[in-house]
UniProtKB/TrEMBL annotation, chain A:
Residues 176-417 form the MHD domain. This is AP-3 complex subunit mu-2 isoform X1. Gene3D superfamilies: 3.30.450.60, Mu homology domain, subdomain B. InterPro entries: Adaptor_comp_med_subunit (IPR050431), AP2_Mu_C_sf (IPR036168), AP_mu_sigma_su (IPR022775), Clathrin_mu (IPR001392), Clathrin_mu_CS (IPR018240), Longin-like_dom_sf (IPR011012), MHD (IPR028565). Belongs to the adaptor complexes medium subunit family. It is found in: Cytoplasmic vesicle membrane; Golgi apparatus. PANTHER family: AP COMPLEX SUBUNIT MU. Keywords: Cytoplasmic vesicle, Golgi apparatus, Membrane, Protein transport, Transport. It comes from Neomonachus schauinslandi. GO terms for cellular component: clathrin adaptor complex; cytoplasmic vesicle membrane; Golgi apparatus.
TrEMBL record, chain B:
It comes from Odobenus rosmarus divergens. This is AP complex subunit beta. Belongs to the adaptor complexes large subunit family. GO terms for molecular function: clathrin binding. Residues 584-625 are annotated as: Disordered.
């Protein structure tokens, strides 16, 4: 099981260590540093590193390496999932997960970690339960604690922990009963030079914010549930009901949670909402290259595309770029060769474009690689897969809740090759 | 106000100040001080000096303070064991607290204090907590048993905690069940032999029920535990699968992968015609695809596992090629894995798409990735024949880019394509030759030289090209030197007139100026071949090469099956069985896929059914690795230089050895895949030895005729048993038995190639043994052993080898070598193969000897359940060279007096008592007398085997 955890920042300092069994010397991290040195970028550090006596499993989030040390055969996914849960918990507790914040809250962090694992076995990882055990720090509570001497450690067993619905605490009360669901879809796509789609898939999630009194039992049905290729549920969802009727039936946790994540893959045709027209040319033995890209809407069902950001890693041979955007702002970093263009909204009448010249290394032959264009965007009120919620009903409680459903489509890993 | 204030220090000395604060009367101040201590601890500062002061704060109602002190205790108790005892009372008291949170906290913390003295006090509270009314306390206590076991295993067993833990598997609360399973699994891992998790249909049912209700982590433990169970038939397997499939929709990827493991394993038992089988296959694909949209670290582990799944059951993901396409900002470790799987999934249907992608990747920035992409194109060409042409033209396009490492990599793979499709794409050679100068990596240079040599007749200036390499001969790596030597000899054989000078030059460079023995040997061989028999040289050097196999990097089927049982574990990430990397002496149990058993025909319990059974019957006589290696180091593991050979074939033998030896060393050092097959052992070399062997058996045939009526079939031959399982010998399985046929002993071997590559160059050696058994001729495997092929060989043995007493006496340690490696195994031979034909003693002699041997040398044995009469017994024994000297009938009992002689001249005398008239009494009584009493036991065993079979 998980033996120890080290938190390491990108400059290679161990700034927190926690051991759940005997103490493992931090020198074990030397193997990690070696691997870190070999990998050119932090993202490329391999997640599993063998050392003579231990295995190091790491994740890299928020510019911090979370390195778990294990000694016996443990499912690596179990460790990595757990590390992600640690990151999520920190974020949940402190708003952000960063080195200064963790250092500022080191005692809470330590208490939380101690609650999450016992002897390497996960103990309480549900944020609902954790927050009952160790209350997250707020400015108000810190002040109150200092004055009254009370603590931020709960002294009662979390109620939900052992009930049939461990994710929900009992005795929840609200004056305004409300349930909001956000259907958020991300498109991952690779578009080739000529603009045709090589692969496209949709990762969707339904995030919920449910603040309902008592023990409500909800059902949520879709107009077109067969669209979904693969679904992963929050433990509260009754699987049998979904298998037989394609209805989500559940007693929700209190507060924010992810009800469902789903996958719509290439088998169903995925609509691509934007296109990029590009003309990037390097000429041999010329120190100038031409660069022009235009972004336009494609299949948007009449919705506006906003928050468009275009980024591209230019080849090493590009010294500088002098470009003029028709809208938005752009930057080019001559050191990292990263071009970034913050476009904003796309107006279909006047398509945004960015054109100009690139200055290349004089005398060098034209670069071997073609830059790939990375696209980010958002479309409000649209689930690009066409998924639609049919209705949401509540049983088990008498009051009438306020219900709301929001749709949004975002770019995930959306890449255009040139 | 944040915790960072705890890090600020004053000049006075931190520890001193903290000490004062810890002893303050004010609660608030105390707590702040403990927080400061904890903060220092988290960053690795040593604050153990404060131990007594911190422990003093333990008695408190403030839960936060208590928890903080506990945190401190866990870290430092080990360094201050005596002080830690101070805390025991508080722990014991807390274990009785009305608040379950505190009870659980106390038992949990106590378990983490790894001090022997404390563990003694822990037992009673732990026993109570295991039976606590509150499930939260029970589940915490379950984990505590695992902790305690880690500290003091004996104590846990003595106190009966293991049984209590087993009972918890039937607990009403699923969380408790999950933790009990987790704790038992962890304990079982350090005791692989103990049958802690005794899985039976009832307990499986309980686990499956708990599976639906426990936390995600508990589900992982339960699924991993289920995967170790072997259902009794396909119906049970199916019903478990049905109850596990819902886990594929879990948000936690570790749960999904553990479920995949259970399904992949149990699927093995389902018949492919079953509708359910198809349904299950369809259900597996979507969750695997979804894993690939997770974070890169999860993707990596998922990809390593998918790599195994795709090899085992390609049909699951055959339509999902696109999800493996590489995104340019994937981390490199994800990119490389995706590429690997793309090639595995490549087929005629999707090859166009794949090639377009690979070509795209070949223009990326990352050099490692680009190289692998280029290699991948070559592998596609070899895998999908229809695409070869397109692949070649893609590679040519890439060569045109002139990017140095792309060109080199392309040339290496084109060489493989030539090997797979000879005489098809030679038109590209001209383009390749243009790039000769830019090659600076040995592998690429060697590949290019191989191409030039192989197609020398079509390249006009082949001699010039090769000559240009020759100038810097000594600076080249061995790989290139060997290749150059071979290529020039090939060239010479093809165009003898113009290249005589060149070949002279290279031969002298190789033989005179080089200090590399491999190179020198190969040079001499060529030289001799060319000078004595150019025709033979042509046959050897220009021999037809076997085609290279389709996929070279597939995991061997036996290993793959084992790895499928380890899906989701570190083993699956490394593609090695845990025994290959798990630390320490903890024995690792080999797992294997369950055999397919239909419910209708299964009457046997699955434990006895698996195919692996024979190997488990094998006597466990293999000494520890160190010893064996030590002994075997004395052996010459090269080609056998034959011990005292059979007289009939000694002359030929010598010749064989010379040639065989030379060739052998050449082949061993050939860079794989390039020129190796040039040296397919010339058939001429194999013949004489073959002749020797057949002559040997011819002689024994003659003997057989003359020896007359008495011996019909020679001595008893045991059925072949597996001596060396494929698992232990990189795919080579050896089973065998010993026979004695009129005067000659032989070892009948069956070699099976369960690996994916061709095996050649077999040789065998025995370690010194009690009776000097040694191979009388080298091991003759005439043709290379191709995958899945089996050969039967009879290896003649003699008993004139060197002698060393073994334990047990009939233990034989054998080393077998092939082109892959050297393998060791040991086996027990039945003693009766050593009973010689002239073992009949004359009556007088028998009497005298019987009296002569002291009585303490007499050994008594019983041969049970042998309903044979004296005639039959004596007949059977005689065919195994145990001779009846006299027979007497005393009081209705038949007494047989028998003699036998061992190859080393030891006589054994026997008295056998048979009661023929009494059908209910079928035991035979055997008394053995021998001057060397240690053989008696083995002679008795020989009696028993002969009489019972």
């Amino acid at each position: 099981m998980i033996h120890s955890l080290f938190l390491i920042n990108s400059s290679g300092d161990i700034f927190l260590e926690k051991h759940w069994k005997s103490v493992v010397s931090r020198s074990v991290c030397d193997y990690f540093f070696e691997a870190q040195e070999r990998a050119t970028e932090a993202e490329n550090v391999p997640p599993v590193i063998p050392t003579p006596h231990h295995y190091l499993l790491s994740v890299y989030r928020h510019k911090i390496f979370f390195v778990a040390v294990i000694q016996t055969e443990v499912p690596p996914l179990f460790v990595i999932e757990f590390l992600h849960r640690v990151v999520d918990t920190f974020q949940d507790y402190f708003g952000v997960c960063s080195e200064p914040v963790i250092k500022d809250n080191v005692v809470v962090v330590y208490e939380v970690l101690e609650e999450m694992l016992d002897n390497g076995f996960p103990l309480a990882t549900e944020s609902n339960i954790l927050k009952e055990l160790i209350k997250p720090p707020t400015i108000l509570r810190t002040v109150v604690n200092t004055i009254t001497g009370s603590t931020n450690v709960g002294d009662q067993l979390p109620t939900g922990q052992l009930s049939v619905v461990p994710w929900r605490r009992t005795g929840v009360k609200y004056t305004n009963n409300e349930a909001y669901f956000d259907v958020i879809e991300e498109i991952d796509a690779i578009i080739d030079k000529s603009g045709s789609t090589i692969t496209a898939e949709i990762q969707g999630v339904i995030d919920a914010c449910v603040k309902l009194t008592g023990m409500p039992d909800l059902t949520l049905s879709f107009m077109n549930p067969r669209l979904l290729d693969d679904v992963s549920f929050h433990p509260c969802v009754r699987f049998k009901r979904w298998e037989s009727e394609r209805i989500l039936s559940f007693i929700p946790p209190d507060g924010n949670f992810r009800l469902l994540s789903y996958h719509v893959s290439a088998q169903n045709l995925v609509a691509i909402p934007v296109y990029v027209k590009h003309s990037i040319s390097f000429r041999d033995s010329s120190s100038l290259g031409r660069f022009e890209i235009t972004v336009g809407p494609k299949q948007t069902m009449g919705k506006t595309i906003e928050g468009v950001i275009v980024t591209s890693q230019m080849p090493k041979g590009v010294l500088n770029m002098s470009l003029t955007p028709s809208q938005g702002t752009h930057t080019f970093d001559p050191v990292t060769k990263m071009l970034s263009w913050d476009v904003g909204k796309i107006n279909p009448q006047k398509l945004p474009s960015l054109k100009g010249t690139m200055s290349l290394q004089a005398g060098a032959s034209k670069p071997d690689e073609n830059p790939t264009i990375n696209l980010q965007f958002k479309i409000q009120q649209l689930a690009i897969s066409g998924l639609k919620v049919n209705r949401l009903d509540m049983y088990g409680e008498k009051y009438k809740p306020f219900k709301g459903i929001k749709y949004m489509t975002k770019a995930g890993k959306f890449q255009v090759r040139t | 106000m944040t915790d960072s204030k705890y890090f600020t220090t004053t000049k006075k000395g931190e520890i001193f100040e903290l000490k004062a604060e810890l002893n303050s009367d004010k609660k608030e101040k105390k707590k702040e001080a403990v927080k400061k201590v904890i903060a220092s601890m988290t960053v690795g500062k040593d604050v153990s000096a404060l131990f007594p002061d911190v422990v003093n704060c333990m008695q408190t109602d403030n839960l936060e303070l208590k928890k903080l002190v506990y945190l401190y205790l866990m870290n430092y108790a080990k360094s201050q064991p005596d002080m830690a005892i101070m805390a025991v009372n508080t722990f014991v008291k807390d274990c009785e607290d009305p608040n379950p949170l505190i009870r659980a906290l106390a038992v949990r913390t106590m378990g983490c204090i790894r001090v022997d003295k404390i563990t003694e006090y822990l037992c009673e509270p732990l026993r109570k907590c295991l039976k606590d009314e509150d499930p939260y306390v029970r589940k915490t206590a379950a984990v505590c048993v695992a902790k305690l076991h880690d500290i003091n295993a004996q104590l846990v067993e003595d106190q009966g905690f293991l049984d209590t833990l087993k009972d918890l598997i039937s607990d009403s609360n699923p969380m408790v069940v999950a933790n009990a399973v987790a704790a038992l699994s962890e304990i079982a891992e350090s005791h692989p032999s103990s049958n802690l998790l005794d899985l039976n249909p009832q307990s499986i049912n309980k686990l499956l029920t708990a599976l639906n209700e426990c936390t995600e982590w508990g589900q992982i433990f339960i699924l991993d535990c289920l995967a170790n169970y072997t259902p009794k038939d396909d119906r049970e397997a199916q019903s478990i699968c049905e109850r596990v499939t819902p886990r594929l929709s879990h948000a936690n990827s570790a749960v999904v992968l553990s479920a995949v493991k259970v399904l992949m394993k149990f699927m093995e038992m389902l018949s492919k015609d079953l509708d359910y089988y198809g349904t299950l296959l369809k259900k597996l694909a979507p969750p695997l695809v979804t894993l690939l949209s997770a974070e890169p670290e999860l993707q990596y582990v998922a990809l390593r596992n998918i790599n195994l799944i795709v090899q085992k059951r390609p049909e699951i993901l055959k339509h999902e090629m696109k999800v493996f396409f590489v995104k340019y900002n994937d981390p490199i470790y994800v990119k490389l894995e995706k590429l690997d799987i793309m090639i595995r999934l490549a087929s005629q249907a999707n090859i166009a798409q794949v090639l377009a992608e690979l070509k795209e990747y070949a223009t990326e920035v990352d050099v490692d990735f680009v190289r692998k992409a280029v290699r991948a194109i070559g592998r596609c060409a070899i895998k999908v024949e229809q695409s070869a042409e397109r692949c070649v033209s893609t590679l040519l396009d890439l060569i045109q880019t002139k990017v140095n490492y792309v060109v080199q990599e392309a040339i290496v793979v084109i060489k493989d394509i030539f090997r797979k499709y000879p005489n098809k794409y030679e038109s590209v050679i001209a383009t390749l030759c243009e790039n000769l100068d830019s090659l600076d990596e040995p592998e690429a240079r060697a590949a290019m030289i191989w191409i030039v040599g192989e197609y020398a007749e079509r390249i006009d200036n082949a001699d010039e090209l090769l000559e240009s390499f020759l100038e810097g001969f000594h600076d080249e790596s061995t790989q290139v030197q060997l290749q150059l030597l071979t290529a020039i000899v090939k060239l010479f054989l093809k165009k003898p007139t113009e290249t005589q000078e060149l070949v002279q030059q290279v031969l002298s460079l190789a033989t005179q100026d080089s200090d590399n023995p491999d190179l020198r040997d190969r040079g001499y061989i060529y030289w001799r071949l060319l000078s004595t028999d150019p025709v033979a040289a042509k046959e050897v050097v220009l021999a037809e090469k076997p085609l290279i196999s389709e996929e070279t990097d597939l995991i061997e089927p036996t290993l793959l099956d084992e790895l499928i049982c380890y899906i989701g574990t570190l083993a699956s990430v490394y593609h090695k069985p845990p025994s290959a990397f798990v630390e320490g002496g903890r024995g690792v149990v080999h797992k294997s896929l369950p055999p397919r058993t239909a419910s209708s025909e299964s009457t046997e319990s699955p434990e006895t059914a698996p195919a692996g059974a024979p190997s488990s019957e094998q006597p466990d006589v293999i000494p520890t690795q160190g010893d064996l290696l030590g002994d075997l180091l004395n052996l010459d593991l090269g080609p056998p230089v034959s011990g005292p050979p059979l007289a009939t074939s000694s002359v030929q033998m010598g010749a064989v050895d010379l040639l065989g030896g030379g060739l052998d060393s050449l082949m061993g050092d050939e860079p794989e895949g390039i020129g190796g097959p040039n040296f397919v052992a010339p058939p001429a070399a194999a013949v004489p030895a073959n002749l020797g062997a057949s002559m040997g058996s011819g002689l024994s045939d003659l003997f057989d005729l003359t020896s007359g009526v008495g011996t019909l079939s020679g001595s008893y031959v045991a059925p072949k048993a597996v001596w060396l399982p494929a698992m232990k010998a990189k795919g080579l399985e050896i089973s065998g038995t010993f026979t004695r046929q009129v005067g000659s002993i032989s070892m009948d071997l069956q070699l099976t190639n369960k690996a994916l590559q061709v095996m050649t160059d077999f040789a065998i050696q025995f370690n010194r043994n009690s009776f000097g058994l040694a191979p009388a001729a080298p091991l003759q495997v005439h043709a290379p052993l191709s995958p899945n092929q089996t050969v039967e060989i009879s290896l003649p043995l003699n008993t004139v080898g060197s002698v060393m007493k073994m334990e047990p006496l009939n233990n034989l340690q054998v080393a077998v070598k092939n082109n892959i490696d050297v393998f060791y195994f040991s086996t027990l031979y039945p003693l009766h193969i050593l009973f010689v034909e002239d073992g009949k003693m004359d009556r007088q002699m028998f009497l005298a000897t019987w009296k002569d041997i002291p009585n303490e040398n007499e050994a008594q044995f019983q041969i049970r359940d042998c309903p044979l009469n004296a005639e039959a017994v004596s007949g059977r024994l005689q065919s195994s060279n145990i001779f009846t000297v006299a027979k007497r009938n005393v009081e209705g009992q038949d007494m047989l007096y028998q003699s036998l002689k061992l190859t080393n001249g030891i006589w054994v005398l026997a008295e056998l008592r048979i009661q023929p008239g009494n059908p209910s009494f079928t035991d035979l009584e055997l008394s053995l007398k021998c001057r060397a009493p240690e053989v008696s036991q083995h002679v008795y065993q020989a009696y028993e085997t002969i009489l019972k079979n």
